[in-house]
Amino acid sequence: MSRKSKIARAEEVMKMLGLDLCADNLVGGELLKGISGGEKRRLSLAVQMINDPAILIVDEPTSGLDALTANNVMTALNDIARSGRTIILSIHQPRSDIYVDKLDNIILLVKGGQVAYAGPRTEVGPTLASAGYPIPPLYNPADWLLDLASVDLRGDQETATRQRVAKLVEHWAGAHREKQELDLKDKEEDLLQVGVQEDKFTPMWIALPLIVERGDSKQFSGLGYNNSPSLGYYFYYFISDLSMVHREDKIVLVTSKKWSPQLQ
């Protein structure tokens, strides 16, 4: 890549993350005043975005930030996602507008790594209502999710809250199993149609997910999202999508250790 192309790419990333106004400022540190905490978070993302990765895995990007700065960081991540990239992040107690406006799909994990919900954000409310825990009016849905998934260790509350968490996990497992069976049936019908209409070998991108999902549903139906076959299945979809969006074949992990760039 030529020097001109590198400069153009750097300017593009800075503009994407709202760093163009502080582009000439020093980062700063303990003894030198520099850019703000939110700008440092976005700078950490910008460093990883230079190579144009297809997937960003981000560890608690809003921790330690005030509400406004946290919203700005999540807006930057949302803009990255809207540009055709996949963002996977862990987040703790997001404010309501971040939950509603910045998140597309959610995985709610309880203690032990069991899945209490995984799917579109818009389906959280109906799923909880069907389990007997509708979101109260004017309540932050993210707070309600965390309240339901937490165990209260205070005396007699522990037994009741553990039962509630177990009920959530069991309800989601049943609903997810039914959805998998319906999806599998639809894919099998599509597979038959492809074979009849085109009279040739079924493409790998259709056959492999179907075979993996069929084996996963039969052999590992009792396991959570943290088992190896499931993870391999999901990352297959991530990697197979790279050729469609024409992004660099890279997966970038941004952890809390990278949130504070230092002067070289």
From TrEMBL:
Keywords: Membrane, Transmembrane, Transmembrane helix, Transport
GO cellular component, one term: membrane
Pfam families linked to this entry: ABC2_membrane_7, ABC_tran
GO MF term list: ABC-type transporter activity; ATP binding; ATP hydrolysis activity
Subcellular location: Membrane
Ranges for domain ABC transporter family G: 92-149
InterPro entries: ABC_transporter-like_ATP-bd (IPR003439), ABCG_dom (IPR043926), ABCG_transporters (IPR050352), P-loop_NTPase (IPR027417)
Major localization listed first in the record, in broad terms: membrane
Recorded topology in the membrane: Multi-pass membrane protein
SUPFAM superfamilies xref list: P-loop containing nucleoside triphosphate hydrolases (SSF52540)
Keyword presence, Chaperone: no
Gene3D superfamilies, A to Z: P-loop containing nucleotide triphosphate hydrolases (3.40.50.300)
Residue span, ABC transporter domain: 8-63
Name the record gives this protein: ABC transporter domain-containing protein
